[in-house]
Amino acid sequence: MKMLINSPETVVADALRGLAAAHPDLDVDPEARVVVRKGASEGGRVGLVSGGGSGHEPLHGGFVGPGMLSAACPGEVFTSPVPDQVLRAAKAVDSGQGVLFIVKNYTGDVLNFDMAAELAEEDGIRVQRVLVDDDVAVTDSLYTAGRRGTGATLFVEKIAGAAAEEGAPLEQVAAVAERVNKASRSFGVALSACTTPAKGSPTFDLPDGELELGIGIHGEPGRERRPMMSAREIAEFAVGAVLDDLANVAPADGPVLALVNGMGATPLLELYGFHAEVARVLADRGVPVARTLVGNYVTSLDMAGCSVTLCRADDELLRLWDAPVQTPALRWGR
Amino acid sequence: MKMLINSPETVVADALRGLAAAHPDLDVDPEARVVVRKGASEGGRVGLVSGGGSGHEPLHGGFVGPGMLSAACPGEVFTSPVPDQVLRAAKAVDSGQGVLFIVKNYTGDVLNFDMAAELAEEDGIRVQRVLVDDDVAVTDSLYTAGRRGTGATLFVEKIAGAAAEEGAPLEQVAAVAERVNKASRSFGVALSACTTPAKGSPTFDLPDGELELGIGIHGEPGRERRPMMSAREIAEFAVGAVLDDLANVAPADGPVLALVNGMGATPLLELYGFHAEVARVLADRGVPVARTLVGNYVTSLDMAGCSVTLCRADDELLRLWDAPVQTPALRWGR
């Protein structure tokens, strides 16, 4: 498997050097592996720290900046960041208003962020945590007790980031983050496996002519394998799974935020064609779509495939979604 | 080869339906295959029309909107739009101030845009044309007399779009577009071939353990094949090729705009790592970088690989680059 890298050992540090070079408005420490919004601790705002294994870019480093994350801690590829890294990020962003940890529900991430929270609190930093667990495909997956955290992470980071930017206190930022997670559901599909730099060959075997419904962003097993389906059939399955689950929890009406996300290697031409089918299914089911993002946002290295994330959004969530954001991967308003 | 599509025949129309659903601020006609900025003909501005074969998304449809293109005409995958399509776009955007056609230098595109220009002029629309031919890899390629047009198209569309948005007259918009093209050079590298939906198998054969230096965005042959190289070696080769050529034409000092572009299937993690090496080579050669874009902007379906585009930018070009833009794929300011 050919890769555009120097060596498997330096992949994460090299990417952080590149991030630093491309975005001088970020403080990037490729050695300590922390990406910080410049001046994060000076604004008197609540700090937002997220992170997780690398390989899901632009998540999380690409979402650091005004209106979104204060800092991100990338671990090795598909490996949790260590507590020291998270602690360093918390210290770098705390302005005395406290810090919210946004954690995708994988056992290693949960443990290490919790340990970092204890250390930070010993240092006098108030910490709250929101756990993102939006993936309806399966429970108790390969690295997860309960549901996996995937695409909703972007919604949580954007909307909580807007609340923090407005000066909301820690409890309120944590509450809105929690609310976004509770109102969001995701479902992913793999057309191919991904290849980690360290392994150099596909992380699982997906035969020609088959796809996997309910895949995790590290290639964790989904619900089932089937003979290859059309974009229309995939959209019906994925959106159906998301809406069925969403009906059990959130108010059954109102508009949604929609993320039609590429896993990394699926061309944008295909993603937009897929979105046409997602939009059709939503229209057929009477679900109004308030905002849409189509593109590669929560990826799985070079996996081909896609995921759908929907968030039932009230006026307040929509207002915070629309608020200005200035990060490498998400940027609008000023 | 598995794809996230309904059928090879409907790929382009399906993607346009998806574009329409995701971006209600665009007028998309999936049948006529024209993407138009809403109200394009009402602003009293020069119209900017581009287009070309599909398969390079977000180019061009993703660059339609305030501050950039007025309309885009996507052809079939890797196939020129037809003159009627381009004419329809010209009519949709002309406000009496004339229209600039931005054409990548491929024989079919040149012929069909020229034919559309004749038809438009018969209808009383003033048309000027800029030909983008930035790719230094080879001359007289598979579909091209002279040099191929690739990544500089983004620079031309953004900067000319900003000039048009400011109300510059047609001759001036055309002149700045020409100036950007003359100041820009690109070089692309393939780690894998791409697969068109119609063919369903890779368009060329690139053995394991080899890469192709100087690849075209339709898989046209480059300069040479070599055993796989590191990101550092590839950056040295690609940036070297670009700078060597740029030295012959533009002022030999001053900052550059840099586009480090993914061909479609290369993870962003790798692209940023590659950019670290690009930035290092530029620093070593004493070339200051004024602005950087890293991501998938001018793609080749599911090809793995990358390209580097540099544009020598004076203060005027930088000012126009920084001007607000609101398109699906490029968005900043307001």
What structural keywords apply?
14 strands, 8 helices, homodimer, 6-stranded mixed beta sheet, 2 domains, Hypothetical Protein Tm841, Chain: A,domain 3, globular, 334 residues, 32% helix, Rossmann fold, alpha/beta
Helix percentage of chain A: 25-40%
**Main pleated sheet of chain A:** 6 strands, mixed
At the fold tier of CATH, the topology name of the largest domain in chain A is Rossmann fold
Largest interface (C-beta under 8 Å):
A-B, 68 and 68 residues
User: What is the CATH top level name of the largest domain in chain A?
Assistant: Alpha Beta
Percent strand of chain A equals 15-25%
From the alpha-carbon coordinates, what is the Rg of chain A to the nearest angstrom?
19 Å
CATH superfamily of the largest domain in chain A: Dihydroxyacetone kinase, domain 1
| Strand order of the biggest β-sheet of chain A | 1-2-4-3-5-6
Q: What would CATH call the architecture of the largest domain in chain A?
A: 3-Layer(aba) Sandwich
Q: Give me the count of strands of chain A.
A: 14
Oligomer: homodimer
Overall pLDDT level of chain A? 96
Protein name (chains A, B): Dihydroxyacetone kinase subunit DhaK
GO molecular function, one term (chains A, B): kinase activity
Pfam family, one (chains A, B): Dak1
InterPro entries (chains A, B): DhaK_1, DhaK_dom, Dihydroxyacetone_Kinase
